[in-house]
Write a structure and sequence with these properties.
The protein is an alpha/beta fold. The protein has five helices and nine strands. It has one domain: Glutaredoxin (3-Layer(aba) Sandwich), CATH 3.40.30.10. Strands 5-4-3-8-9 form a five-stranded mixed β-sheet. The protein has a two-stranded antiparallel sheet with strand order 1-2. It has a two-stranded antiparallel sheet with strand order 6-7. The radius of gyration is 14 Å and the shape is globular. The two termini are 25 Å apart.
């Protein structure tokens, strides 16, 4: 069971703005999606078991998210090149944001100390934010089960 982390951002807060590179050589600005529901799911690393499960779960539900007018973005500190390979390998239909300078993970408070097999290190917490059409945070999932999570988010829309 993932430990519950203490997030600075709360439901009702304005979502921190950003502009960042994506897989495929594009860029995304959160401001461009005002008026839509935005799902920002933060994950540690491309091509790792939990992250792949989570990405594939969002892929499986992508048509349903689109039907509800929501956009999905995966966010990790991986570079664009790693995202390109991940998207191609698993045919992901949504953009992955390359937060290489860790500005977004820091702004959203999902970067911090983690422990794996007794070793402490800095990394990304698996947290998801649902941002409403008004640009405010509508819901936060501070603990995520990768294989079930997309369905949980979809139910909240």
């Amino acid at each position: 069971m993932a430990k519950e982390i203490q997030l600075q951002l709360k439901v009702g807060d304005p979502a921190p703005q950003f502009t960042v590179a994506t897989n495929g050589g594009g860029t995304v600005s959160l401001a461009d999606y005002r008026g839509k529901h935005v799902i920002l799911y933060f994950y540690p690393k491309d091509n790792t078991p939990g992250c792949t499960q989570e990405a594939c779960a969002f892929r499986a539900e992508f048509a349903a998210f689109k039907k509800k007018g929501a956009v999905v973005f995966g966010v990790s500190p991986d570079p664009v090149k790693a995202h390109d390979k991940f998207v191609e390998k698993f045919q992901l239909p949504f953009p992955l944001l390359a937060d290489v300078d860790k500005a977004i993970v820091t702004a959203y408070g999902v970067w911090g100390e983690k422990t794996f097999m007794g070793r402490k290190y800095l990394g990304v917490y698996r947290v998801t934010f649902l941002i409403g059409p008004d640009g405010k945070i509508r819901q936060i999932w501070p603990t995520v089960k990768p294989e079930e999570h997309a369905t949980e988010v979809l139910a909240a829309l």
